[in-house]
Amino acid sequence: MQNNQPTRKATYIGGSNYRRNAYGTNHPLSIPRVSLATDLILAYGAMTDAEFKLARKAADYELEWFHTPEYVSAFKRAEALGRVSNPVRQRHHLGTLENPYFEQFFTIPATATGASVQAADEVVNGRIGFNPAGGMHHARPDAAHGFCYFNDTVLGIMRLRQQGWRVLYIDIDAHHGDGVEEAFLDDPEVFTLSLHMDNYAYPFKAGQVSDTARAGHTSLNVPLPKATNDAEYRLAFDAVWQPVLDKFKPDAIVLQAGTDMIFADPLGKLGMTTQGFLSIAETILNTSPCHADGTPRLLVTGGGGYHPLVLARAWTGLWALLSGRELPVDLPATGIDALRSVPWDMDEDEPHFAQLFISRLDAESDTHIRTEIHDLILAIQQHPYLKAS
Ligand SMILES: [Zn+2]
After folding, report:
1. Which of 65, 93, 136, 303 lies 20 to 30 A from 156 at CA?
2. Catalytic residue IDs
């Protein structure tokens, strides 16, 4: 094992109940995610006991910073009852195909949500906080949406706001961070920036550049064409990132790091590699506002990601980045075993199976995509927030 000691202060919030199969058996999220990423990190020996904190369940009063008391109590009742009643299903979108009922129905999402508040506490206390089980950016105050039950991302931002900090939220999940955008649309102390798939994907017809291009809105959307690759994504990202940092001057950053933006994802349609994903995260890390000792004031959550093997590798690389470690590209034998134990046949023949990164051989630039990205950048530059002097 080489360089497995941290060079940056970071805390990983994990939990024992993530080993349960949440979301039942027939859902894109009924795959090992945080548990597999944790196994791979541990296989590398890349986490000390001091860096790990066990996730705690969010208290009702914390959930109610954003969610309605009716939603929270209906949710708890469903867990106690062992099923979702029809009126609750209709009003709160719980127990549907999209947001199915499962064992520990309230406990598991409430724990993933408490973990984002904990991760925000870590940031307040001078460390980077990483909650891979978080990033449930579609949840609404009174309803579940798009596989998201509680909006831990909103609660994490609210915890940082309690410090009086201005918070910049950057969402690189393949899907539009609509629940977070909506929550803070009229709060001038929170800026929400989302790069995502255009109208061809969930939540459809949302997240256009023009949607929030109204004076006073601290929000910006970057809808990307299908198959956008690393270089094209970088062009769009660079057109917004530094200008927003310069204008908004945040005190802290919240990064939603969904891995469905990587090309192999079964629900994502972008053309990014794991290295492209990590390179964007690295820029965010390196430009984040810092504590006096130079530790970035950065809260990182997980998010979407429906290819377990790609997700585990990407979040292992992300954790290495956050904690300041350099990991060998060749996976340790126990890490390979952990990946092989997942019943997943999509890339058994992948030539890079035994490595931390998966490569992409067909990632040349497409003129059509370049033109669309160019037009997108022109539209971004016309956004009233960036234009205002
Ligand atoms: Zn997503």
Report:
1. 93
2. 138
Out of 142-156, 200-214, 253-267, 323-337, least confident range: 200-214
Q: With b meaning 16 or more CB within 10 Å and e meaning fewer, what string describes 217-227?
A: bbbbbbbbbeb
pLDDT confidence bin for 360, thresholds 50/70/90? low
Find the 49 Cα to ligand 1 centroid distance in Å: 30
Distance 120 CA to ligand 1 centre (A): 22
Q: Class for domain 10-330+364-387, per CATH? A: alpha beta
CB 352 within 8 A of CB 181: no
CB distance 119 to 13 below 8 Å: yes
3-state SS, residue 29? coil
The verdict on whether omega for the bond into residue 32 sits within 30 degrees of 0, i.e. cis, is no
Distance 291 CA to ligand 1 centre (A): 30
**Structural contact between residues 232 and 270, judged by C-beta atoms closer than 8 angstroms:** no
Question: Cα–Cα distance between 41 and 204 in angstroms, integer?
Answer: 35
**DSSP element (H, E) containing 380:** helix 367-381
pLDDT at residue 18 in the model = 61
| Cα-to-centroid distance, 68 and ligand 1 (Å) | 24
Nearest-angstrom CA–CA distance, 272 and 81: 43
| C-beta of residue 171 within 8 angstroms of C-beta of residue 254 | no
